[in-house]
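W.,

You were right to be curious about this one. When I first looked at the sequence I had no strong expectations either way, so I just let the prediction run and decided to look at it fresh. Below is the sequence, 455 residues in total, followed by the output.
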Amino acid sequence: MGNSQIHSGRSFCSQFLPQEQAEIDQLFGALSSDKSSLRTSPRSFSLQALKDHVGGALPAGMVTRLYDGMRRVDLTGTAKGPSENVSHEQFTISMSYLLKGNSEEKSLVILKMISATEGSVKAREVQKFTEDLVASVVHVLDYRQELRGWMQKEAPGAPSRVQVMAARLLSEMKLPDGKKLLEPEQLDCVCSQAVIEDWVFRAPFVATFLGVVIHKGLLILSTSLSLATLIPERHVDQGREFASVLDVLSVIYIDAHLPREHRHRWHLLFSSELHGHSFSQLCGRITSQGPCVALLEDHDGHVFGGFASCTWEVKPQFQGDDKCFLFSVSPRMAVYTCTGYNDHFMYLNHGQQTIPNGLGMGGQHGYFGLWIDVDFGKGHSKAKPTCTTYNSPQLSAKEDFQFHRMEVWAVGDFKSQPAKSNKSILDVDLETKILLEVSGRSRHSEGLREALDDA
């Protein structure tokens, strides 16, 4: 860790394959042939040439950051300041380090993108860089029409999802005193190159997002970036489009924590906006559908939910396994995984008189980490101080909350799992079952079932 110079004293060798280096050289040739660069000698390119090439694909501020990062590369170790333009060697070194380098090499260029100050920067400057980086990812994906069906969403009066994602990334930074960057008063701390290097290692989204900005913004080495590994494809049944609680950044964040085999595709199972405010509809649409992500937005604008790693079943016992987790999207992004304290991962029950009816994840009856009541639109998130199953804090603004929007998405390859053959149609149509029971009419099929197989 540690050398903050990039110059010929460091033996530099391009990490690009021959065909990749040829593409790098071709782009440099185009940039240095721009009319704003032709006056330079030896061949180099100007900021205007880079802006002309990028066009509207990236915000102007990010284009300038990329350009400054490249022209501040000191090839000799004796430069008094940044060069006026970007040379071929500066361009190759910067691209090699940012796209192929290790955490140390990436941090060297990132520092130069953040500030002209040699060696260290203020945490506040890192915060601004991170917000610019996250905003640029959304901008370029939208510009290139590669959001894969998702949208950018801003909630009025709440921190923007860009700020929330940036805060998530910054929370991975360990300051010189060993504390994480979590409080506003820490923004005046000085971050050395070693701190930035450690941060890039701890927060892999930083390198991933830089890759998206460069590949999609500069249209260079695009085949080496697979967006399918970053953004799942969004599927909603034909003619049922709606405005999701989710935006592309929150989807990217949640998806990264799913088991790898479930990351490539999300299919909508239930939306209160489309299917109504009905717990029976919820149960009927999510049972026997495989692993899924459930989330809601409470009346105070908090967005949170959970990943169910096993298919939901209506039964009075806990279910699931230790791949389940709870998460928060707004006002902060966080994932809370299993503690091993108990196996109360998932719970879904309906139509019982003596035990709770609703959907729950973590904790215990009456004290869930996340609970959706059978009286749809009400729930609770109780944690004093944290949920025993997931170590999650209170996810909602109020312990007992109300919500108006809920969604459930099947993740991975969508395969409906047939229910067991010994179930009556009334087990699926729960509203009809309840109406029969209330009216005092008997269910004649109840005594005709075969005994359940204990296996």
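Here's what jumped out at me. The first helix runs from residue 18 to 32. And, maybe more interesting for your project: The mean pLDDT is 87.

Coffee later to discuss?

I.
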